[in-house]
Amino acid sequence: MKYKGNLSGKIGIYSLLIVIAIIMIFPFYWMIITSLQPLGAIYKFPPEFWPENPTAENYQAIFGKFDFLRFTLNSLFVTTVAAVGQLFTCSLAGFAFARMKFKGKELFFGLILATMMVPVEVVIIPEFLLMNQLGWVNSYLPILIPSFLVGATGIFLMRSFFENVPRELEEAAAIDGAGAFKIYWKVFMPLSRSPLSALFIISYLINWNALLRPLVYLNEKVLFTLPLAVTTFKGEYESQWNYLLAGAVVSVIPILVVYLLMQKQFIEGITNTGLKG
Amino acid sequence: MKYKWYVPYLFVLLALIGLFVFRLGPIAMVTGISFTDWSPFGDPSFIGFENYEYMFTDPSFWEIVLNTVIFSAIFVPSILVFSLLLAVLLNKGLKGTTLFRVMYFAPVITSTVAIGIVWQWLFSTDAGFVNFILRFLGMENPPSWLSDGKYSLGVVAFVYSWKRIGYYMIIYLAGLQDIPRVLMEAARIDGANKIRMFFKITVPLITPTTFFILIMSIIDSFKNFEIVYTMTRGGPGISSTTLSYYIFQNAFEMFDMGYASSVAVFLLLIVGIITFVNFRMKSRWVKYQY
Fold this sequence. Notes:
The structure holds 2 protein chains of 2 kinds. Chain A is mainly α. Chain A contains 15 helices and no strands.
């Protein structure tokens, strides 16, 4: 749609857009600025909008003394495995819900969608007791296993996509003697690059930022993910904002870079899983 | 297509295990545990409704319920109003829209932990940027936001709204694109002004999206554990303690699994009732016909 309207209207809208942009972006700017100053400088009044003597010493401390490289690698590992898990579970189930007839289909699909409403805080207690029973506390299993098994949004997304794949493709493959799994893997999956990448991005994002499960399940520092490391760090260095914000920046930068490179896929992914209407 | 009867079940096997082991099972279990006295290191003992009795007679529980309601009452309306406003602004077809959209969406992809920390810094009493602005504007003793029980909950709800608004904006944008353009053109030709067009065409036609956003944002507003944990840990006192934080606190700091479970059951019921009522009321205001 092209803009239709007069110049003063245009100026009005742009000023509004810019004011909102400042409100949305300023905290990021402030986070970076603070992380580039020594402790003494950040308490100055009035604050410096552009640091006179920027320093990397907070980051040296973060990666040296506080071992954030370790936490970054932990986060990368957990997040990647979890996102791959989502792809399998959700595409398999989505395929069955979209292309197959079976008893209990509507019921199971309805239940899966309905449980989207359940806050994790409600089910975390029995989940913890189960993981504790299995002896999985202090490992990544309690974080990874659910992402291999639970994925209402992803199942919904994959089902909607698979439903629109022409029937002929499936039939042609079946005539060639392909079984269900082969049809799924050789015909449907190669067609699904765009919903799969959307799903990958979304679960990557969710897992990268997750705090509750790591907080509940991980006690040993070597296992910490970035958000957990940053919160724990916050408890220990309460008013050393220069360190805290450097830690926050380190936890944000990787995902922010990916977002800026792939913002279209991010936004499409969110829109498609947002079951609009 | 015809497949052997068991084939579909193989495909949904993982998802069904997930459904039963991580969703339905835990919901049943949490209900069971709520009738017991249980620390994770000992054996549970059945105590009937004792946890519920304690919960309902504890004044601080009701304060926490009220906090939760206030949090939602700040979050949900701000989301509904501002995400639609942003979406409408971005839907004008102006140049540079993509850039603005990228910026508005940035908080959505950022972790609650990082956002909580930076806003805590911005709202800090002496060196915080917010108070710098207020002093600059002439206020002599600006509030000590997060360490003042009068403001802590409001600040946390504000920050969470700030974080989530871009998400709902994107959903509204998709909804706006579904409004037939001919309607807008027709109204324009009839000489309707912008504000009238917004309230008479956009708002009614977007009601299906609004309904979805209402449901999702209410549920979202109950999932506030991470922001509360990061910014205030429910304090000062219990001034910013919400139900989901209270569940965590009881279960994983006090290790009172029984009591925490009864709070969890309460929260689940609230979410269920609100969602149910929303769906019942749906036909009264949601219009699917153009």
